[in-house]
Design goal:
It catalyses: dTDP-alpha-D-glucose = dTDP-4-dehydro-6-deoxy-alpha-D-glucose + H2O. With 342 residues, this protein is of the alpha/beta class. The protein has a domain of 237 residues: 3-Layer(aba) Sandwich (Rossmann fold). 42% of the residues lie in helices and 17% in strands. The strands form three sheets. Strands 3-2-1-4-5-6-10 form a seven-stranded parallel sheet, sandwiched between helices. A three-stranded mixed sheet has the order 7-9-11. It has a two-stranded parallel ribbon with strand order 8-12. The N and C termini lie far apart (39 Å).
Length: 342
């Protein structure tokens, strides 16, 4: 009996890494291939509990390297692709937009060509609600799958561009695809440059916590494990060609998030330091996930339960985020996989 083969790009990152673990543990008869270039945000230490499992395979590769990707597809004959790999830090996109266009647009196009040529059964492109632009503070307004794309940062523009390429390959070539657009994720193995893990690590070390502007920007928070379940469902049961929004029904201002963490850890709000607002900082994101819920998905974490679980995870797993902050995590994958510094 032929084993199902799934390629997961960006599986050393935050959301992709959690999805790799979800799939490896849930589907022992699937062969899960984690393809990642291991840039600064790529970390294989998170996979130490699954790296010896027979159904887990790691391949170091650049998704923009056409020869490497085509060779991999030709050799393995993947059934499914779940595409997470992307440059994703908005601040970095403002200072280095070319990197985002190169990886997020060209890399997606290379993967689409490979998927088309070798006939994958489904290509799931994992995107973001940021492609929709921003909402005002009216709580009745939400992003739906029909909301026009109006990205406001180089990062979100590069993701919107890749979304449109995926759609075009479906419309032009008949490639079976789905696009998912999620709200802000949080949870285990979140790289410490992002708001929630940055706040947790700073509070634990009694360091100042930078908050952009007045802290009133609103995000809809989605636990990464809920997100993984959603993508799993779309991969297997999503209607070909459809877009599915994935939201957590958990809107909070950035300042509320920071204060919640400070209170939970018993520290003072004097740690908060308001800093100059980010360029083009979107006011509010909020997703209507009704379409996905009709497919059979609902988030299991409220923000209260999810943030408590996340804080506990960071307290219990200092070995992970402390070696990220120190840079030692890069030594782990070089030792385990005999990789160079390239």
């Amino acid at each position: 009996m032929k084993r199902v083969k799934i390629l997961i790009t960006g599986g050393a990152g935050f959301i992709g890494g959690n999805f790799v673990q979800h799939m490896v543990n849930k589907y022992p008869l699937y062969d899960i291939y984690n393809v990642d270039l291991l840039t600064y945000a790529g970390d294989l230490a998170k996979h130490r509990d699954i790296e010896k499992k027979e159904n887990y395979h790691f391949v170091k590769a650049d998704i923009t390297d056409r020869d490497a990707i085509m060779s991999l597809f030709e050799k393995e004959k993947f059934d499914y692709v779940a595409h997470f790999a992307a440059e994703s830090h908005v601040d970095r996109s403002i200072t280095e937009p070319e990197i985002f266009v190169h990886t997020n647009v060209l890399g997606t196009q290379v993967l689409l060509d490979a998927a088309k040529q070798f006939g994958v059964s489904k290509f799931v492109h994992v995107s973001t609600d940021e492609v929709y632009g921003e909402l005002d503070f009216d709580p009745t307004t939400l992003f739906t799958e029909e909301t026009p794309l109006q990205p406001n940062s180089p990062y979100s523009a590069s993701k919107a561009s890749s979304d449109l390429l995926v759609r075009a390959y479906h419309e032009t070539f008949g490639l079976p695809i789905n696009i998912t657009r999620c709200s802000n994720n949080y949870g285990p193995f979140h790289f410490p440059e992002k708001l929630i893990p940055l706040t947790i690590s700073r509070v634990l070390n009694d360091e100042k916590i930078p908050v952009y502007g007045d802290g009133k920007n609103i995000r809809d928070w989605l636990h990464v494990l809920d997100h993984c379940v959603a993508i799993d469902l779309v991969l297997h049961e999503g209607t070909t060609g459809e877009v599915y929004n994935v939201g957590g029904h958990n809107e909070r201002t950035n300042l509320e998030v920071v204060k919640t963490i400070i209170t939970a850890l018993g520290k003072s709000e004097e740690l908060i330091e308001f800093v100059t607002d980010r360029l083009g900082h979107d006011k509010r994101y909020a997703i209507d996930p009704t379409k996905l819920e009709k497919l059979g998905w609902k988030p299991t974490y409220s923000f209260e339960t999810g943030i408590a679980q996340t804080i506990e995870w960071y307290l219990d797993n200092k070995w992970w985020w402390e070696q990220i902050l120190s840079g030692e995590y890069q030594d782990y994958f070089k030792k385990q996989y005999s990789l160079s510094n390239d």
